[in-house]
Write a structure and sequence with these properties.
- By secondary structure, the chain is mainly beta.
- The protein has one domain.
- 7% of the residues lie in helices and 35% in strands.
- The protein contains 1 helix and 12 strands, in the order ββββββββββββα.
- The longest helix is centred in the C-terminal third of the chain and has 12 residues.
């Protein structure tokens, strides 16, 4: 499988209406989320790139791949390795307005590295978890609630923010 950061669309010499599929290996740079590092194992993903030629110098592009992202769970801090299926599309139709201009295509060259990185980033949930039902850490003692005995809890006193209210007397 060909390893590449970019792909020269112009070298394909395709006519309008033609399409081709490519199997490529693309690097994905690590992410910094919440001060923690999350990375794709091996730093590469195998992608399927579909290229279709449109009118003029335009292209319709589709990028598909699966990626695992490793790092600490955002709730319990244990190792997390969620897997994501990516299916991203771009249109590059120069001269037809900004909405038909892809930020990943410049002078007929597709920046696959940036597109794959951004497509995975857009698929990420708000919190990367070790498992969907992760209970996190106990806010009082810090124990991993996923491993704690059932019914783990602490006796709590009155909320100190309302201590002054206990001095009120209604006589």
């Amino acid at each position: 499988m060909l390893r590449t950061d970019s792909f020269d669309l112009g070298a394909l010499n395709m006519r309008a209406g033609e399409g081709r599929r490519f199997e490529l290996r693309v690097p994905i740079d690590p992410y910094q989320l919440g001060g923690e590092r999350y990375a794709v194992p091996g730093a590469f993903v195998d992608v399927r790139l579909d290229v279709s030629r449109t009118i003029g110098a335009g292209y319709a592009l589709r990028l598909r791949f699966e990626a695992e992202l490793r790092g600490p769970c955002m709730r319990c801090l244990e190792d997390a390795a969620p897997r994501y299926a990516i299916d991203a599309r771009e249109v590059s139709q120069p001269g037809f307005g900004e909405e038909l201009s892809s930020p990943y295509v410049e002078h007929g060259v597709l920046d696959l590295r940036s597109w794959a990185h951004d497509a995975l980033a857009l698929a990420l949930p708000a919190a990367l978890l070790c498992r969907p039902d992760c209970a996190g850490l106990c806010p009082d003692c810090g124990i991993d609630l996923n491993r704690a005995p059932a019914g783990h809890h602490h006796q709590t006193g009155p909320d100190p923010r309302f201590a002054k209210l206990s001095e009120l007397r209604f006589d």
